[in-house]
Amino acid sequence: MKQVGILGSRNLSCKILKWIIDQNNVNVVGVVAPPFNGWWNDKLRQVAEDNKLQIFDSIEELLKQSPDVLFSINYWKTISKEHINLVKGGIVNIHHSYLLKYRGRYSTSWAIANARKLSNWQHGTTIHYISPKLDAGPIIDSYKCDITESDTAKTLFMKVESLAFDIFINNFEKIINNAVTSFLDPDPEFIYYDKDSNKDLEIEYGMPIEEVYDFIRAWTFDDRPLPYFNFKGKKILVSLETNNIN
């Protein structure tokens, strides 16, 4: 029986953990669910407690349980090369971007913001092995979906969360059995955005109205900073009345 561990947060990690628990060929040796104040009500720790699983405060503690494979599901902490090398079956991550085109942070927002400019109206999710370089490990599989002109970051995020659950369960067996024999090529024109890439959301005067609309949609997401116009040193925040989008 394979020994697996979970690093994660948000609803997707809860859904995946519940699914893994129901499998007969694996044993969950522990869960790391670091606290985070965000828009979601994080229940991964509660799911682990309800199923009488061991909960650890750090990856170091979980690694002492000698897991065969670790799964990183919306886990927002950096994982060191040293820790990666300690897991013989690898650490497998889900990152929301088709073929890892958008790496780093806020991938769904930037996918919308750039869709029209790059003529790339697709987004998605990728399951891949973690490497020391962020969001750059070997790609096991990748699913995509369309970006529509009515999508906001929130609605598109929910689409790719659904894709992520499917991609996980469809690749689970070959991952835990070390049966991944080939990898997909990443998008050669990938773009990286760091954690500060949403610090300046000023909308420039004269920007085409479609770009303004796209930019506002891109940052319509619970607890995200709002785009704004600057008028005489004052920020005029701009939001979208999403109920009126057809």
Can you characterise this structure?
With 246 residues, the protein is α/β, with parallel strands linked by helices. The chain has two domains: 2-191, Rossmann fold (3-Layer(aba) Sandwich); 193-244, no CATH class. The protein has seven helices and eleven strands. The strands form three sheets. A seven-stranded mixed beta sheet has the order 3-2-1-4-5-7-8. The chain has a two-stranded parallel ribbon with strand order 6-9.
Please tag this protein with its features.
single chain, 246 residues, alpha/beta, Rossmann fold, 7 helices, 11 strands, elongated
Whole-angstrom Rg: 19 Å
* CATH fold node name of the largest domain: Rossmann fold
Q: Give a quick account of the main beta sheet: strands, pairing sense, barrel closure.
A: 7 strands, mixed
Order of helices and strands: EHEHEHEHEEHEEHEHEE
Write the layout of secondary structure elements.
Layout: E1 2-8, H1 10-21, E2 26-32, H2 44-50, E3 55-56, H3 59-63, E4 69-73, H4 81-85, E5 91-95, E6 102-104, H5 107-118, E7 122-129, E8 139-146, H6 153-176, E9 191-193, H7 209-218, E10 228-231, E11 234-237
Parallel strand pairs: 1-2, 1-4, 2-3, 4-5, 6-9
Antiparallel strand pairs: 5-7, 7-8, 10-11
Helix pairs in contact: 1-6, 5-7
Concise overview:
With 246 residues, this protein is an alpha/beta fold.
